[in-house]
Amino acid sequence: MTIRKVIPLLWRYLLVVATSCLLAFFISRESRASMASGAEISTSASAANAVSYEASGRYDVETLKQSWEDTARKRVLPIHVVAPRVTAATVEAPFPVIVFSHGLGGSTAAGKRWSEHWASHGYIVVHIQHPGSDESIWKDAHPGQIEDNAKGAMTMTNLGFRTGDVHFVVDEIMRRAKTNEMAFKFANVQRIGMSGHSFGAQTTLAIAGQSSGAARGQSGFDKRITAALAFSPNARNKVRMEKQFGDIRMPFFSITGTKDGAVLNDGTKPEDRELPFAFMPAGDKYLLVLDGGDHMVFSGQKIKRRRQLPTRHDEIQNDVKAASLAFWNAYLKDDIAAKTWLTAPQGSKSALQAQLATNDRFQMK
Questions:
Q1: C-beta of residue 350 within 8 angstroms of C-beta of residue 337
Q2: pTM for the full model?
Q3: Strands in 38-152 per DSSP E
Q4: Nearest one of 188, 365, 362, 194 to 290, comparing CA atoms
Q5: Domain ranges of the chain
Q6: Strand 225-231 relative to strand 252-259, pairing
Q7: Which fold has domain 61-364?
Q8: What residues are paired with 231 via a beta bridge?
Q9: Which of 6, 44, 205, 295 has the maximum number of C-beta atoms within 10 A of its C-beta?
């Protein structure tokens, strides 16, 4: 082959190499950009590699219904455990534990949308049913008596019973984990979260350290709780709020909505549900206010009776799934990427803020 023929072939070869290098460069740059924004939620195919806190996790979910008897206090608690189904191929144990407390008139069905999502991502969730402030106040009651029954159950005495229930349940979780009971064989009892809706949010605040004078001599605060998340919290007694909420030192996430007002004609305004956050000391405190969110959208359960759903019902629930999971990952699993997704500005907003609707609001301090 002559030099005259070799030179054009050489140039073609060099052109192919150069083109391949340029293509590799741009692909690499796009890949790095995708990785940099990987903490943002995305369900589109173009962002398949992005972290999605909204999507279901790798685990199938299994449930277990039991009754736990607190002989010392003569209380029998219905318990519903929602947990990852563990196989040799999927186990990432130990799993953090989350205790969930239902609202007034509720049951272990409360919060199931949240717990099934959390469990699919590697959490064991224990739903407590609190006798005296559970569904017994309205089941079989005359319709005209239900509101009176509910108001009669929303008491400091029942708050005291509820905090006592939580202390007992945490004791039981630890005992059952130690004896390798199947439901808790893979539990990480050093990382326990507390959550609840409405009256369950009040229970969560008390467990986290709110100074509320819990009845019957039962102290609310439980130092074994690592972090807490309250759906529809409230400051029912609006006096000395700096003192009420000033001792809540653990990471705490308050989630509410712009239509999350009164339930029992008690005068509660949606903005009242922001007060606990406002008066907690700074440091790992978060508030999410979702536009159009009413009280029951945060209950996390399917409401059987007819109810007009908020226009953004599904969107709100998906935002709750994402934000709550990122919070638990950040504080119960020490996941730096999750905390970054919650807090670190990408431009002028965090990844969470970037996915919210225009009139939603996220604050942290």
A1: no
A2: 0.83
A3: 61-70, 75-84, 95-101, 124-128
A4: 362
A5: 61-364
A6: parallel
A7: Rossmann fold (3.40.50)
A8: 197, 255
A9: 205
